[in-house]
Request: fold
Amino acid sequence: MSSGNDGSEKKKNKKKETKLGMTYKKDASFGDWYSEAVVHGEMIEYYGVSGCYILMPSAMRVWNVLKDFFDSDMKKLKVNPYYFPLFVTESALQKEKDHIEGFAPEVAWVTKSGQSDLESPIAIRPTSETIMYPYFSKWIRSYRDLPFRCYQWCNVVRWEFSDPTPFIRSREFLWQEGHSAFATKEEADEEVLQVLELYRRIYEEFLAVPVIKGRKSEMEKFAGGLYTTSVEAFIPNTGRGIQAATSHCLGQKFADMFGIKFEDDKGSRSNVWQNSWGYSTRSIGVMVMTHGDDKGLVLPPRVAPLQVIVIPVSYSKDADMASIKGACESTVCTLSQSGIRAELDDRTNHSPGWKYSHWEMKGVPLRIEIGPKDVANKQVRIVRRDNGAKVDVPLTNLVDEVTVLLDGIQENLFRTATERREACIQVIHTWDEFIAALNNKRLILAPWCDEEKVEKDVKVRTRGEGELGAAKTLCTPFDQPEFPQGTMCFASGKPAKTWSFWGRSY
Reply:
């Protein structure tokens, strides 16, 4: 029995429901769109400290999928999990000045305990080399202790910067960091690329984001390291590259500073060769930027916390809602038992249309609608989030069809993102071509003489070009195009030594 207020109550609810949805368009106002997408998609909540964010269940579940994959491969590679403390003494942090110089402006310090000043300030880790390596020198004595390979999941704090962006640039973030020590450089070199390939897989196979593997310039490498490799993503909407993950060969410099030596089988002592490598929750932001659209998030099925949402649909008051709801519950049960992450939205205070928009905004890959005709025909209607395609599927083929569709969405997202990225790559040979491509938001592949002085000069010369900031090298790709004899550097006119990607970056 309905009350006399039902009509007015429905009008109120309907009025509220019209407010659901995205306000900003991705192409028109990317920054506002992104902030809205991660909040409306319930991935983050803003916090009282600028640059710090609450990671909501949707974000943490994506992170946990990546974590599970990485943990599994670490176990296969016999890399051991550790956890090192959050704090580092000032003396330890200053021990390797060249290394910490790159982090110095970002280090947060604890100077008080209650109302009392600490005898010496204590830093909150911006990275863990100076925390870990004094203990490596205790644990590594002989060649029998090598290789030593460890990793941890933790948070780090990097404080001083402007324009915080959820996931992409925050004062505190979660990451995985690995550290290893070897007897020879050859072993270290091998691991650098081994781990970099795992990072490529995280981005391309799980997040459906295409990346470029390459080596960072001397100017952009990890402070104090021998060389840095990275996987680089690109956001076409902003024309900016983004360092997605890094794998560094540290050489022997840290070993020399921290006394990490080993005795070989002949009794002579040598410094170990070291690596460090890591990726962070920035990966979630890159995924959102790459796939999201004007309706909100678009999540790749392999990492989506919820892969299928089932929604009951009635087109009239006379519909048998009990049988519709029963069919929905049975569908969720069937999918869940097969390992597909599915849930039922049976809320009665929202219309089916409102629910469609809600789950589209959260990026759920597939929506299943079940109405009276579907129950009668023993079928369901499935709608794809990535392209909106609809298909009616018999219940007898439900699990197989859903599995095929999820795989197809994963492949389509990666293919589409790759096509968009490839369309932004522009090969240039001259400075004028470089400037034109830069201001056209391109990912620029240019012949370069590989000199630090020239790279610094490019930064200076592009600082005033437009409103987006200076350009820099993103990486020198391992996959090098053909290099015609006599090719000259686009910036200096000197003989070019390599092809490198250039552009603006996050």
Confidence is low (pLDDT under 50) at residues 1-18.
